[in-house]
Amino acid sequence: MKRRILIGGAWPYANYSLHVGHLAALLPGDVLARYFRQHGDEVLYVSGTDSHGTPITERAKKEGISPAEIAHKYHEEFVEAFGAVNFSYDCYTATFTDYHKQHVQAMLRRIYENGYMYEKQSEQDYCETCGKFLADREITGLCPVCGKPAKGDQCDSCLTSFDPSELKDKHCLTCGHATVQRPNHEIVFALSKFQDRLEEYYRANSPAWRTNAVNETRKYLEQGLPDRDATRSLDWGIEVPFPGYEDKRIYVWFEAVMGYLTAGRRAAEARGIDFDAFMHDDENLITYYVHGKDNIPFHTVIFPALIMALENGWQPPKRIVSSEYVKMGEDKMSKSKGNLVAIRDLAARFEADTIRFYFVTNNPERRDISYSEEDMIAAHNKFLCGAFGNFVNRNVSFLKKKFGGVVPSGTVDSAMIAETERMYREIGEKLEAGELRAAAELMLQYIQEANKYYDTQAPWTQVKQEDKTAFNNTTATCLYIIANMSNLLAPVLTQGCEKIRTMLELPETPTWSPIGVKDGLVLGECPILYTKIQ
Question: For 523, phi and psi rounded to 5 degrees?
């Protein structure tokens, strides 16, 4: 039966260029989307640019332009960067759109009406020098858990998320002066009401999560869930749809994660899909959320609680694909530190397949990785050129040289048919489990088996011995393997597999089931799948 798949890629902040750490964390989402489409499932793959919040206003100050201009500038850059590495979003949007704004305001009102929000007067951090209440990211201090320097909402050292009131030794990030406490009124989300339900949700779903998500979520739940302000005294953001809050904006932590729902709805509407029914179909729906480990609590605690608070029966996140970090040397790549390799710069120098192959086979699934351009080039030359590309080239070139490129009528080796069927089954299982590195290892194994078969059969010897039947069988088998490579490798190697499908006149859209090549087909020029990088 056709499954329904919602894949949400984390929404990057529009405060600087995307780097390869973002790419490594988000690429699994595109691989999953391509695989499930090939499988014939109904896929909504969505994301967008997180264009509100303090990081954007701080970047705007540095560049001397408005937050809106910053958001649009980096949104356009993000769209270009994702396109350069062949991401296939069904909807990539931004939080500054009217569509997102209207639906977020409607969801805020619904949660309020459902009794999970309340108004509160409280003491908040105020900077007397800057003359304003401070958002979480405008505050710096010491983490209440590990004691290391942290921003007002999260510690990058121990990954603990907290309320700004818990931060120690607080100072204004802009001017450096100590903050003071002043009364302010906000609308608060009653996260604490969901403690028991979230613990039950965690027990039911965490066996399918990565270890970092399991550990971080358990730690977060064990600390006890505090209520969280859903509004803040800001100028840049989505207006609060209640009287008396004209000087407030909806806090970015609330409206950004709701972007999965607004973008999902928008993608569904564009294809005539009933989004409410789609999200209600718990029997056939699988939701994947793909992000870095610093975003874990927002996807495993806060976002599920918000979905529960909507009380419309939608499925909370089921599969969490949370990556570790990509480092430059010993340091985590960081926009604020500037120690990064931008996706757009990398894509200007290397093919999309080269980049995708490296970050799938070297994905930070269970541990941090150190990015190495030398390793990426070595992997390209050894596997894409030397193993995959060479297998295709020597088969097709030999057939064209000896027989004018006419595909012979031969019998495909039964052992290779069985091996191919196994690959569809096992690669699919690994991909659905979010184990991209293991899936890539199987893909490479299939390529190695193909080369071993070719070398063992030695079709150049079969031709010399005028063993036409043996040669036809070998060639038919190898072309069968090549055709199925264009399916099995397509979620990762989009460019090379497309060249194969064109050459063999296969259906333009890859599928997830064994295919063959037409007897008597006359092959055109054999394309060079990949060129060696010096």
Answer: -75, 140
